[in-house]
Amino acid sequence: MKSGKINSLFKNLSKIIKNPKSDLKYKNKFTLLLSVVLSAQCTDVNVNNVTKNIYPKYNNPWHFAKLGRKKIEKLIKSIGLFRNKAKSVYLLSKQLIEKHNGKVPKNFDDLLALPGVGRKTANVVLNEGFGFSTIAVDTHIFRVSNRTGLAPGKNPDQVERALYNVVPKKYLKDSHHLLLLHGRYTCKSRTPSCKKCVIVKYCKYSKKEL
Predict the structure, then answer these.
(1) CA-to-CA distance for 191 and 130, rounded, in angstroms?
(2) Contact at 8 Å (CB) between 30 and 59?
(3) Phi/psi at 155 (nearest 5 deg)?
(4) Do 194 and 208 form a contact (C-beta atoms < 8 A)?
(5) Are 41 and 81 in contact (CB under 8 A)?
(6) Where are the domains of the chain?
(7) pLDDT at position 19, please?
(8) Strands (E), 96-179
């Protein structure tokens, strides 16, 4: 996709997606980190439904380190993969206390070293929590990037590298949420809403319906 079309694509998306930000509800950077970890293979709606009853009482690493794995499991049992996620929440809470004085690090490598944190989670936290111009490639961004031809790739890492190369600097910070929200609500996996899509004229998706 040529640079002029890329600029227009993001311009059109930014006109309809005002104040792009995560659908996850959180109280601070720590609860943001937890919500992103919990959201793996799970909808943001489901995570929010669970955490709305947790965060008013438990919202820092010391709370979760004291709870222990079994109690955390009970709190998040309606979330998919809850046992593995409870283990990650417990261990990352302990690691934050032991290595970072209970604070969420704003360094990519330090975030990546935390239990249960991958590239996507680290980039989301840096973008949403610290305002960095990072791009976290989830299933929605991967789909939109490939369908439109904006940043095609065979895996999330390839798409991430391609996006950093093509996204205009002006839109870099918001590009993550612009593409994610567009994929979640318009360029959906099974039934994309091509007729109401504001970037359809730039899209190379062979099965788009006009």
Answers:
(1) 34
(2) yes
(3) -150, 165
(4) yes
(5) yes
(6) 3-20+135-202, 29-130
(7) 86
(8) none
This prediction's pTM? 0.90
Q: In this structure, which topology does domain 3-20+135-202 adopt according to CATH? A: Endonuclease Iii, domain 2 (1.10.1670)
- Residue 149: DSSP 8-state: S
User: Would you say the C-alpha torsion 23, 27, 32, 37 has a positive or negative sign?
Assistant: negative
> Catalytic pick from 52, 109, 138, 207?
138
What pLDDT, in 10s, does the model give residues 174-202?
Answer: 999 999 999 999 999 999 999 999 999 99
Round to whole Å and give the CA distance between 127 and 69: 28
Q: Which of 52, 103, 120, 154 does the annotation list as catalytic?
A: 120
Please indicate whether residue 21 is annotated as part of the active site. Answer: no
CATH level 3 topology of 29-130: Endonuclease III; domain 1 (1.10.340)
23 included as an active-site residue: no
Residue 87 tokens read as 């283990």
| Residue carrying the six token digits 């031809």 | 149
Location of structure tokens 């004085």: 101
How far apart (Å, rounded) are the C-alpha atoms in residues 86 and 65? 11
